[in-house]
## 1
Amino acid sequence: MDKQRIILLDEGFIKHKAIFSYIAQLKENREKLIQSENVSEEVARRMLEIKMRNNLIFIPKPTLTFMRMVVGYLKRLNVTSDDKIILAIDFGSWRKKLDEKYKQQRKGKREEKESNDFWMGIYKEFNNLYERIDPYINWNLCRRYLVESDDWAAVTAKVFTDKEIILCLEGKTKIKLKNGKSKYIRNIVKGDEVLSYNINDKTYTSSKVLNKWEVKKEKAVRIYLNKNKGYSIQCGENHLFYTQRGWVKAKKLLTTDIIQYNKENYNRWKHNSVLKFKQPMNNKENIYRFGYLFGAYTGDGYIHKKSKSIHIEVNDYDFLERIKMYWRDLYNYNANITDSTNGYYSLTMSSSLIFDKYQEQINRLKNSRPFKKGFLAGFFDAEGNMSETNGRLSIHINNTNLKLLKNIQIYLKELDINKGNIVKTSDAKIREIKGKNYKCKKIFRLNIYQTYQVLKFFNDCKPAIKRKYPKWNYHINFLSNGKRIKKIETIRCKYSSFRFHELELEKPHTYFANGLLCHNCSSDQDWQMLCAYENVKIFSPITKKFKEVKNPLGVLASKINGDISDNLLSAPSSEREFSIRNKIVNLLELPEEIEKPLKEELLNLPLKNLYVEKLPYKSVREELKKLYT
């Protein structure tokens, strides 16, 4: 193999990293002006422009940051004058003609930060930079219409087969290991096997750590699962967590979200089981039990004030099992469940002493939050039902007492479940019930429609009747192993920056951090498939190490089949879509009309010299002098 190395850098990756850094600094300075000068955001924007123009505030231009980053990457690779440097520049994409959705989300992400005019101006600055440096730098700036840096990398790997090709890409948290033990993330090393979770078949598995590195962030997100305790986890804004909405970035989590959570007894977990309520541990759980009994008896029970007994008759045995257990837990009273001839089950509590104590406790506890949760669960078991239609969940609670339903609606709002309404379902009329005619009152219905609100109700209130729970494994996953977010906050480091450890894992690319299911740090794997060529290596400037790619063809397969990708998020659903997807993501086999002109250009790359003094930016010139001497 030739001594000369071919070093190819992804211009788009480095450029956008520099731009986003510039935007973050602009935003920080605008926020300072808003606070100190007490002005609007628009006025602060104009004030900042004036201060920057008059050199009162210095923020490095993204073009300067870009040049420094490129030189920094080359320094870490110990580049020499013998090495050939290729800066692969994105210039549109032929892939968008095949699939309009290709990289469609990137424009939206950019415009979330700044306006379209801002981006057009920045891109123009970079075009001017390339025109200015191209005649005087010993790098080959490769650019062709509708060709991406991925295409340049793919063809470079094919053309220079006789040379070494380097493609340059970009503490307190406990990680659950395969054996069930935990280890601080700072102590995790390459080769460790962590507990992982396959979201497709809802099973626990293990995943080997392929890489680990440390990054610095100006902002961090703190997620609280308990209101009265400290934060449960602190992470970067773009860290992915698995919720009932799918994978969600930390900065976009809501207090209505339920995060998949790992319990200590994960080996016993079954995705088709309904959450069982814990045995009484503290007073809050006892209060919940009183609320549940009161809700159940309010819905379907009959209270005999003279005989001081409470009777209930229903057709769900698990409903009465819960009631029986609560009488035993609260008063050590053993109530028997009897099977009646009409297919119903009944239970009676007939102790006058317990009856009086029970009534006294109800009056004392009825305004507490745990009591209301229990009441909602008991009343739902008695009068409610859950329906699934086209993948959407809804809850319906019927009753003749409109005032009672309005009180229940208030209870639900206190639990942040407020997407519900009350409607009249029928007028008063004669109905036949169990062979007898009864005069029935008007019936009203309380409806809760949104799926995440329904999941929130089940997760917070925990009813007993299994048949009323969602049947989907996807939903049961969150009911049995979910943690609702109580509070989220984004904080900025006052003095320096936050340090985070990031992991790269084998499939299924997931792990548990402080019990919460996370995705490994997102990185573009497209270039990893090029490691199928023996002469290709991928260098990470973050870790300052070469990446070990054990199965490059597996990377290609996962891309085609719809694995998590920055460019295409959905899996192909037909043979035609599969064919298009293969053409888009397969860097090992580019279309001939794309590959042929790139080969010709790469084989005829000119020998370029470096004229340091004619390059822009004094600091960059000094660094280049050091690099090549």
## 2
Amino acid sequence: MTGLARLRTGVIGCALILVISALTGCQQTPPDRSVQADALVDQIRQLPGVRSASRDVADSVAQADVHFWLSVEMAEDATADQVAAVTTKYIDDLRTTGYPAYQTELDIHTGADLFAVDGGHDPLTNGDQIVAQARDWVALRSQFPSATVNLRATVAHPPTKRPTGNGSHPVLGGLTLADPADYRDVSVAVSALGTRFPQLADGTWTVDASKSHPATITTSKRMPTGQELDVWNKVNADQTIPHIDAMTVNAPATPPVWISEKTISRDLATSLRLATLQLPIVATLPAPVLYTATDQLQAHRNYDGRIIGPVAVTVGGCTPRNYGFDPAEKKLIDAYERCPRPKG
């Protein structure tokens, strides 16, 4: 080996050592917080209204598993003050103990109901808001005693330079109504959320009817208007052609309102007949409104929101499509859509 070759080998070797050292430094094992987590669990077990508490702690960087999860079961009659006390104790411990690099989460259960705080890897900056939403969860359970109530609290973190962002998100809520609830009960529940819990209305909500009478409203950033709920009730009530309805407000890559109908039959002619009956009702809403009638509530859409199969009509707008439509659908498109005319 020549002197130049030995020099090159030495330089490469030193570079590799530096890279390995840097990677090792980035992959340092976080401090073990098992003792602190056990102490927190013991404290929470002593709080009024708590039936049980447990924790799951892991700090293995090599296995990409670094987390602290706290689970608490509350009594059925736990008060807002009691749930707030558990939440406060958890948030205080995150701040005082510190769980660097840990993915953290608090789950408070009462039967099938859930209040959750997914802290992610970064400190929380909205502790007071989270505690207030813990109280809201108890109020929601009282408002909807026969429903399953899930509420994932708003979380806010300091700005971060990590490529994946800081994991902040608004409140995420869900109500699953018990049998024999139908679309009318969904409408009533959504109205109650908007009027009695306005502080939660700008989150993302899903309200489901019972399994025997499926119907779903999903909202983001706002609750439906009275006019939108009126249309919802009308399209559900008309079962001349049997179908199931979903309404989505502010879904990604769609107009502000999307009404999706699922037919029992997979026959395209059935979907077209349903669309012919329902589009005059949908068209009473402010444009644009996406209407779909297919064999599934998600319709035939790809990842970027383009429609890849019939039937889809954007009332007062233009539907991005990746499929050819037959003459019957073309009549509906011509009657309700307003697509820009090609230039020239």
